[in-house]
Amino acid sequence: MSNNNKAHIYILSGGIGSRFWPKSRKQYPKQFIDILGLGKSLLQLTAERFTKIFGNENIYFITHKDYKPLIRQQIADIPEANILCEPARRNTAPCIAYAAFKLCQQDPEGIMIIVPSDHLILKEEEYISKISEAIEFVKNNESLLTLGIKPTRPDTGYGYIHYTQSADADIYPVVSFTEKPDKDTAQKYVNSGEYLWNAGMFIWKAKDIVDAFRNYEPEIYNIFEKGNDVYNTEDEAAYIDAVYQNSPDISIDYAILEKAGNVYTLPVDIGWSDLGTWNSLHDIYESKDQDKNALIAKHIYITDSENCMVSAPKNKLMVIKGLKDYIVVDDDDVLLIYPKKEEQEIKSVLKTLNGKTELEHFL
Amino acid sequence: MSNNNKAHIYILSGGIGSRFWPKSRKQYPKQFIDILGLGKSLLQLTAERFTKIFGNENIYFITHKDYKPLIRQQIADIPEANILCEPARRNTAPCIAYAAFKLCQQDPEGIMIIVPSDHLILKEEEYISKISEAIEFVKNNESLLTLGIKPTRPDTGYGYIHYTQSADADIYPVVSFTEKPDKDTAQKYVNSGEYLWNAGMFIWKAKDIVDAFRNYEPEIYNIFEKGNDVYNTEDEAAYIDAVYQNSPDISIDYAILEKAGNVYTLPVDIGWSDLGTWNSLHDIYESKDQDKNALIAKHIYITDSENCMVSAPKNKLMVIKGLKDYIVVDDDDVLLIYPKKEEQEIKSVLKTLNGKTELEHFL
Fold this sequence. Notes:
Two copies of one chain form a homodimer. In chain A, 31% of the residues lie in helices and 24% in strands.
């Protein structure tokens, strides 16, 4: 097979979206849910962005094996071979290594486009145009490219990419990555014009990322390198099942991007939100009422309330008075009423509840 | 038939309990609900208080005809003749007149005990003992007797009975009735020791209340007097269906008690609550948590919250943070989140929603 320089899209679909609980559940996480009420899940919206341009056969899903049935259910006509299953949760580095080795074995020059399954992108045309630009760049450069989102506010929930603008290019070398900064630092970053949000969207050639694993994360490299004889054979799944859990549990950012010298970024303005939390959904929700309430609810009577994020089933009547800056999510068997400013605590609430057997099915 | 001086219990079961929405719905109102989580509805608890003493055959239910099936479902072995059906809602005066004329036709000396179906009484023995005392009194006096609850707080939601204590009696003439007073007035009432709460529990002989209708509410008297030939015959229901809607829409308090000269009250301390509102349920709920939250919910994780009244289905997980003095009621297809202090608005919210066809089934 010679797919020289052909682009392969890998949609990372294994997250559990715990900050979006209770809409997002372990058994049915965020990417599979129609969070925006558009009639399509975030996963379906993500896949559609690419199938139009790249065709169905070049779209891959990397996911935890538990979610394979959900992907087959939501993505029509997906070849079974295009679902790469993680037998254990080990963050993004090993699953990207797995995909890279597998592709490299067939087509070392093959281009990988790696994207999250659960983000929102409003300016789709611009996005695809930037992806094409990125493809051209990595074709001709031994580089690891990350899209960088031009920041619109000093958000403390994101990682930032520090880059230096040079005069005659769209694509720039990355100086460094920094994790979630404090508010003041984030404000300095935004003011400087030299920082971008790291959205976890990567473009590179298969052989270039495999090289990077060899150089910067040899433990993962060794695990997947030993499988070179079985990738794309019937023995592949058994091999992955056997070795995958031995991999370090680490993100691609920590494992590779913060260490490699050939990391570049392409700044983009694509109407992006990671929809990471109820707050971020509130931020991007367009049809708020006059009191800045974002109401995803068919039947609702809300008074004396401001700046709330409400989500309810279609067949439910919500009567709410006097809430300011609250998240109210009714998801059939769970009701969450939580101050918006403290939503980062929801993760730890889930950890607390997780210890209780009788509550397991709510999580 | 000669049931001389035998007591007949009339349980008023036609209310719609709108202040207890959304647990209480038009199709299935408060008295039919197990609001306290005891495994029995308020109606069943009310009936049981009396069946023990007076037997099944002397318990009557006066209700809107729509609720007849609910009564038959909840009260085992109830003779069909013991359910008196109102074909229209006309408040308490006409339904009591109907019951009184019907009994009077068989047994003018028969004693009527009229009680609401949806109140809580904790001191049941004391209650029954006071009822017996009241029966003895009305047997020997042409009087209309109302139980008066000794007030424990300056509640502005109740009507008050003004009476004068005389030295050598348990039972006193009523000076006047006053409707819901303001806070200061209520406080003066409580301090004076001369006021009792009107709990809508009445004891009198059939002929005495019929006489009172003749004297003070002739319009109602005339309607029901014309039916004297058909009561307790197979023509009764057709007659009531034809004339009932012509009756004035008025309470027994306004129609009779505020006018009659032979009204007496027996002050009682029986652990009473009208359970009229979520606030009153919160007040009487015994096992509140350390932050004074009354939590009728099997699975609940509530933090940084005080003085809330929460009611949820057994199979629902509630996660709540930061609510103070709130009512949170999840009742399957309706969620109510409302400031406790403003709960009297709920009735008018329902009126607003009532105009919308698509919401009708939530009410």
